[in-house]
């Protein structure tokens, strides 16, 4: 059955057929199969001797596998969904895990995305997330690499570049390098509570600038009244 014919069926009937198409190398089927799993619309079909729980686990693992297969073939929608799914994870009703977080796999997707030379905002996001993955997955963080990624992200500006600048500023702050932290925190202070609050502390305890302290304090109050977006720092 062709992909278009499968997609014309009710969602509950698509799973096994999309799986067959995904196994044959159909990029669109790989993407839609993963979407079906992440929406908890398909839980696998048990094979002989396989329990329902085993079929569910296999189907959820296959969703990431098929996305990565399509991603390696250059399928951009699969790259974007794949990196987001394994970076953030996916959960369904009653907190059941539909896709596990895997920073190792996220980096693989992110590298494929960066290789496609995405638009600046997407590139900033990919660089920022790769830096976070390296930070979170290693007992000994490779800070030189992480900082370089965040600096590249920050140079691109936008929402994700601002988040990278905030992280860089906090890194310098945590290491007692307050003068080095200030330029990065300045880039992010009007959009990031984390940046504004750290900058406020610097001006209170390091620069002793009452005017700058007051400005940052006012920014913090304004940000407190604004509901942050998911993942915003």
Q: How are the SSEs placed, and which strands pair?
A:
Layout: H1 3-7, H2 11-23, H3 27-38, H4 52-72, H5 76-88, E1 90-91, E2 97-99, H6 103-115, H7 120-137, H8 143-155, H9 158-174, H10 178-188, H11 193-205, H12 210-224
Antiparallel strand pairs: 1-2
Helix pairs in contact: 2-3, 3-4, 4-5, 5-6, 6-7, 7-8, 7-9, 8-9, 9-10, 9-11, 10-11, 11-12
Structure in words:
With 233 residues, the protein is mainly α. Helices cover 70% and strands 2% of the residues. The protein is built from 12 helices and 2 strands; from the N terminus they run αααααββααααααα. The protein has a two-stranded antiparallel sheet with strand order 1-2. Strand 1 and strand 2 form a beta hairpin. Helix 7 packs antiparallel against helix 8 and helix 7 packs parallel to helix 9. The N and C termini lie far apart (47 Å). The relative contact order is 0.06.
Mean model confidence by pLDDT: 95
- Sheet/helix structural class: mainly alpha
Instruction: Give the total of beta strands.
Output: 2
User: How do the strands line up in the largest sheet?
Assistant: 1-2
What is the H-and-E element order? Answer: HHHHHEEHHHHHHH
Oligomer: single chain
- Report low-confidence residues grouped into runs of 5 or more: none
Q: Give a quick account of the main beta sheet: strands, pairing sense, barrel closure.
A: 2 strands, antiparallel
**What is the rounded Rg?**
22 Å
Helix content percent band = over 70%
**Helix tally?**
12
Approximate shape: elongated
State the end-to-end distance: 47 Å
Strand content: under 5%
């Amino acid at each position: 059955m062709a992909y278009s014919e499968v997609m014309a069926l009710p969602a509950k009937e698509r799973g096994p057929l999309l799986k067959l198409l995904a196994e044959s190398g159909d990029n669109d089927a790989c993407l839609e199969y993963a979407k079906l799993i992440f929406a908890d619309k398909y839980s696998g079909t048990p094979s002989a001797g396989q329990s329902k729980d085993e079929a569910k686990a296999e189907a959820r693992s296959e969703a990431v596998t098929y996305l990565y297969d399509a991603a390696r073939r250059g399928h951009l929608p699969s790259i974007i969904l794949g990196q987001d799914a394994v970076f953030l994870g996916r959960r369904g009703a009653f907190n059941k895990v539909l896709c596990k977080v895997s920073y190792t796999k996220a980096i693989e997707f992110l590298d494929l995305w960066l290789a496609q030379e995405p638009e600046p905002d997407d590139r900033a996001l990919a660089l920022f997330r790769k830096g976070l993955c390296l930070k979170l997955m290693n007992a000994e963080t490779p800070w030189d690499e992480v900082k370089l990624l965040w600096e590249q992200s920050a140079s691109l500006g936008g929402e994700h570049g601002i988040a990278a600048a905030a992280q860089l500023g906090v890194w310098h702050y945590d290491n007692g390098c307050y003068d080095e932290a200030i330029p990065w925190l300045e880039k992010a202070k009007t959009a990031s509570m984390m940046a504004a609050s750290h900058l406020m502390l610097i001006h209170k305890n390091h620069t002793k600038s009452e005017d700058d302290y007051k400005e940052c304090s006012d920014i913090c109050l304004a940000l407190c009244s604004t509901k942050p977006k998911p993942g915003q720092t």
